[in-house]
Design brief:
The protein has 206 residues and is mainly α. The chain is built from nine helices and three strands, in the order ααααααβββααα. The chain starts with 20 loop residues before the first helix and ends with a helix. Bound molecules: manganese (II) ion (MN).
Length: 206
């Protein structure tokens, strides 16, 4: 049983002009496919480990044989994070952009003082993270939402938290269009955030 690239929920050019088609194509068909392929290769012959979800792999990394642990950590995280990331976006005006509603807005307002304050804090986490990695909104074990960044392909499940929304700030996510201007990419990305999906994500854990 091999891990598989999930179907992209929209065409490569659907997030234009905010995320360009070429970036989407390479990000999905080369980078994400690469994580899937390398994960499958690393776990060849490990029937028990292949049954684990990518979340389980990250949570129980100590159960992975040491000689493949780094590879499995990196590519399992890459597979998990990107599978989530595609769903957290939608074409602007067709599910993407705008503001969160309902319980999600309530939770965000309660924790961060309002949507704009949340956006500022999250953008700040994304822009100031100075190595490769992701910015995260995650639900902590005490039920509180937290914003932070993590390196490489790490995921909040590694801290016992539930990922609610994440932003890829590896250069491969934006370099073709925005070059080194990460703040511009982060600003553009808000136009394609799929708040309905983010809310579903939160409801799943509440
Ligand atoms: Mn990426």
């Amino acid at each position: 049983m091999a891990y598989e690239l999930p179907k992209l929920p929209y065409p490569y050019d659907a997030l234009e002009p905010h995320i360009d088609a070429k970036t989407m194509e390479i990000h999905y068909s080369k980078h994400h496919q690469g994580y899937v392929d390398k994960l499958n290769k690393a776990l060849e012959g490990c029937a028990n480990l292949q049954k684990k979800s990518p979340e389980e792999i990250l949570v129980f990394l100590d159960q992975i044989p040491e000689e493949i642990r780094k590879t499995v950590h990196h590519n399992g995280g890459g597979h998990l994070n990107h599978s989530l990331f595609w769903r957290w976006m939608a074409p602007a005006g067709k599910g993407g952009g705008g503001e969160p509603q309902g319980k999600l807005l309530e939770a965000i307002s309660k924790t961060f003082g309002g949507f704009q304050e949340f956006k500022n804090q999250f953008s700040n986490a994304a822009v100031t993270h100075f190595v490769i990695g992701w910015a995260w909104l995650a639900l902590d074990r005490d039920g509180v939402l937290r914003i932070f960044s993590m390196i490489n392909q790490d995921n909040p499940v590694m801290r016992g938290m539930k990922p609610i929304l994440g932003l890829d700030v590896w250069e491969h996510a934006y370099y073709l269009k925005h070059q080194n201007r990460r703040p511009e990419y982060v600003e553009a990305w808000w136009n394609v955030v799929n708040w309905k999906e983010v809310e579903n994500n939160l409801n799943q854990w509440n």
